[in-house]
Amino acid sequence: MSKNFDVVVIGAGPGGYVAAIRAAQLGLSVACIDDWKNEKGGPAPGGTCTNVGCIPSKALLQSSEYFDHAGHAFADHGIEMKSLSLNLKAMLARKNTVVKQNNDGILYLFKKNKVTFFHGRGAFAKPEGEGHTVRITGATEETVIARHVIIATGSVPRALPDTPFDEKLVLSNTGALAMSEVPKRLGIIGAGVIGLEMGSVWRRLGAEVKILEALPALLGAADTQVATEAGKLFAKQGLDIELGVKIGAITVGKQDVTIHYSDSKGTTQKAQFDRLIVSIGRVPNTNGLNTQEVGLKLDDRGFIAVDDHCKTNLPNVWAVGDVVRGPMLAHKSEEEGVAVAERIAGQHGHVNFNTIPWVIYTSPEIAWVGKTEQQLKEAKVEYKTGTFPFLANGRARALGDTTGFVKFIADARSDEILGVHIIGPTASELISEAVVAMEFRASSEDIARICHAHPSLSEAVKEAALAVDKRALNF
Question: Is the pLDDT of residue 1 over 70?
């Protein structure tokens, strides 16, 4: 006999598990289905983000940054190390522990909020009476009936044509996070977030890293001033980034990978690597949902087609996160999951795409929210800017990290903040103030008039706001 629920969520990534918890908080009976497995075959909810994405990459970024600091920066602080060695096995074990803690935390939250969890794969089946029928395949076969279904199945890495991932020599983000030894020569195709972060990790640990990017400019989505600064700093660190390349033949040998490509001048080049990470984007994960059986509409790029409220073409079927339009960001997925749960409960959930922050966790970190200068120029919007370098910030000097700057962009007439762009220490944390300010449609003057603790990195945000009116106090 099938079990009945008000809401069934397919997928327990950031969008799915948060949607399930919020729906349960609102008094609905909720089930969540997810088939991620840990090393022992047990449940590992959290999706790509927790298992092979955001969480493990940040763990390795932190560990590798400590290693890099110990080898290069500690001496400036009067900390002398006579010998330094890398225990990669222990580093990876710590990363795995962090992942498991997050997996277990989600399972605890399901129990706390009385969300029924099914460890298996969910797919639509032919309707059995009212509601939507979802078949679960896994350790046991079960069928559930849902009044509402939320699809949150996420995305999968895009592979190169004719060069599939083997996770041994040709790696997706999964293999990039689990190399058992540091490769001498590491190649990366794609200079996006994953490529830059994974390149940073393995460069710090001793690999020679070359990144090949098809686009003619680095970080095209970021503000040009920030992207230019980032390119200089990455080059100084030793990341070899080639832009405007065209990938040709790729030969996977027994122990290495050879790439033939044309550089930005059209000259044929050849490079040989011990490992190759392919990070050329991700595609929506709709395989196995049985979409054709029930007539669920996909768009021309394979995403589940939804309206502005995340409704699909099927009644009471919703979709959130990477599987629908919009930026593939974990926090965007979470906000959509909450909004949909609230809409199902009769409330008015809301997601403001204009104030979704972007972060790249390299060193320095890069973060932004709102519009870039190039976007405003294209839209012919009049604006004014203010920047402030971390070189002039007392806390940054004390930390020993004065790279980068904070940049404000405000409307030329109203002074409303249109965008904030940060490259520098803890940019991922500092950007939150800008997000809050923009949600309240604050002006740069509002931030300039707020007292910030001294000494703190946040003072650079205040100073950049002051600089919009050309009255920065410390630069």
Answer: no
